[in-house]
Amino acid sequence: MTAATDVGLVGATIADRYELVELLGRGGMGDVYRALDRELDDAVALKIVRDEVARIPGVLARFRAEVKLARRVTHNNVARTFELGHADGLTFFTMELVQGVSLADRLTRGAIPVGEALAVAAALCDALAAAHAVGVIHRDLKPANVLLADDGRVVLTDFGVATLVAADDVVSSGTPRYMAPEQARGEAATPAVDVYALGLVLYEMVTGTPAFVGGVGTVLDAKQDPSWAPTGLAAIEPGLRAIIARAIAVAPAERWPDVGRLAQALGAEPQVASSGASRVGAASGRDLPTAVILPPRADGDAGYLIYGLQDELLRRLSRRARLRLLRRGQPEGTPGVVNVELAGGERATITAWVAGRADLVTVTAPLEVDALVAAAELASRLVATTVGAGAERGVDDPPLPAAARGLLWRGRDLGRIDGVSRLAAHAEFAAAAALAPRDPRIMAGLAIGEVRAAFFSEPTDPQQMVRAEAYATAAITAAPHEAEAQLAYGRVRFHSGDAVAAAGHFRAAIARAPYLAEAHEWLGRLLLEAGFLVDGMARVRDVLDMDPGLEMPRWDLARAYALEGQWAEYEAHVAELERRGASLAVRYASRLRTAGWRGDLAEVAMIRREIDRSAAGPLFERNLILAVTDAMLHGQWAAMRDRVVATITASGAGSSRRRAFLGQLVAEASAGFGDLDTAATMLAFAVEHGLIDRHWLERCPSLARLRGDPRYPPLHRVVVERADAILDALYGDHAARATADTLLVSTDRS
């Protein structure tokens, strides 16, 4: 998108969420801005719909339904549609922000080389195939809705926008030059209209001129003439000419039956291997003052102090007005970006520098809690001055004794590691609570500790979730502005089986502290399980950029690749985890599970021997895992099934999330053994306890036979509804959505 010549509403904040940073362009439907989503710490494209369009009776209701459906399209070649809202007297919707130029802008310079044009068309076929698979038809495919992104992608935008018109307004309901003949006649749109439009776009790319020219009446009349052909068609190479001619046939039945078949035909053209489409345009835009906080270099027993220093610095920087905190590094030499790195040694050091400038800011402090807090405050002011950021906003932190703060930092640091260390973190939070019993940050830590125990500890205690609820409620009631309080309450809700409420709280935590890795981690995990892989993987990768030492997000990515059958990527992530010394407990359980998915009994036997050699080591649900493993190796499932099921369904067996997870394990194991009755029973048990794992449900190889069982569809439907509700909680209708602030108490984020 290219910048417009004036600023419009730049500087305004819409719906107390979207800060308008730059006017990108103007069109017949409204103005498009680059905006900062302060609640999810993401840059988005925000389009403000013109009043005359928004007032058309019924149009917003139709578009709202289309947006909800379009959000199911998660593909790298599709700009995701997020939210339709009305606030501050404005109707708006948000989409993924794609930096680049439109295909229409590129075509002003003439035809595109055939190889590049074929690569663009192939990418558009992939995008449309993903949309058609979930029942979404674009209806307004044209060069202006195709972006050639700086990152090399070809991205299709504006899904659903064609519904923002009156039903009887034929000229406006699609662009006449690219609409299909049946669309011009007012007939219901089918995927064939997108095939037709794509054929016209491909023709225009290789010839440099539109297929249809002239007034609206002339264009619409020509579309109904079976003998009509674009004037430049005869000059195109015969093979490609035939592909285009079939795509733009007047009768839908004479076109390619779907975009998949069109893609196959394009793939047979030798020039499609060209990758030149990835760099046919570039765009630039004005950026907010930006700081990149690099992962700290902290080793040894004092490492938790450096992570604590980072927390304090990030807390202060995140409150600065007009300051963007990036979750990943910028290319070397990016102008105007301040890089900040923390390191430990005999003293703590904070270093800040801007590429291309000779000045360097360095702050040092002894490894003492109060001195580190003071250093974070000084560094925050220096960074803000360096990039021209504003003053701090929000509520000051309550005072906290140095000893309690040190215990808090140590507990958080332990919580970054594996499940066993995370359980040990609870003791640090408890010691901190003895010194500062009402501090909301400590209460949040205790809540998360109880949640972890309710999932990992054996045996579990039914009071763990009761205590977690009490601690989290105390934290969020006392300090709803604290990101840690929102995160803790979200964790409690998630482990209580209410993922929709959890999503709202994770979003609120990110809004208050965009660099809080654990909030992004849990939101990414939620999105992955709900089946929104593009968004989920992007967020989990961001988490690993923020804190490369985290273990569980890497397992999340590995599992997602395994479920997609991308085993090379899975093995690469597992190898990296093993290189980093991943905990044996998680490693054994995860590798056994994926070996079962692949039916790799040799791998199962090898891991079983490793477990025997480390008998004293921790293993999540050891008895269950060993029972299932032995059944796989020795065919003992019938003998142990009833005992396994009774153990899983016993009352008080941990949090709802733990019980749902155990239900998943037994469901996939029993389905793999051909025991569909037990598989269906355990899947129902998991759904009863809040299962949202649509990705696993639809892709786990062990469940293949169960998916053909009549008991599967109603359970699948419940999980799909929950998954969609999660996305609604993040990007639902603004005026109606429940937010983390309204669930308990309102807050002032001004």
Describe the protein:
- Helices cover 51% and strands 11% of the residues.
- Mean pLDDT is 83; it is low at 1-5, 162-173, 270-286 and 733-750.
Compact summary:
The chain has 750 residues and is α+β, with helices and mostly antiparallel strands. The chain has 30 helices and 14 strands. Strands 1-2-3-4-6-5 form a 6-stranded antiparallel β-sheet. Strands 11-10-12-13-14 form a 5-stranded mixed β-sheet, covered by helices on one side.
User: If strands are numbered along the chain, what order do they take across the biggest sheet?
Assistant: 1-2-3-4-6-5
Uncertain segments are 1-5, 162-173, 270-286, 733-750
Provide mean pLDDT, rounded.
83
Q: Report strand %.
A: 5-15%
The biggest beta sheet is recorded as: 6 strands, antiparallel
Count of beta strands: 14
Helical segment count: 30
Query: Tell me, what's the shape?
Result: globular
- Secondary-structure class: alpha+beta
Give the proportion of residues in helices. Answer: 40-55%
Radius of gyration: 28 Å
Give the termini separation: 30 Å
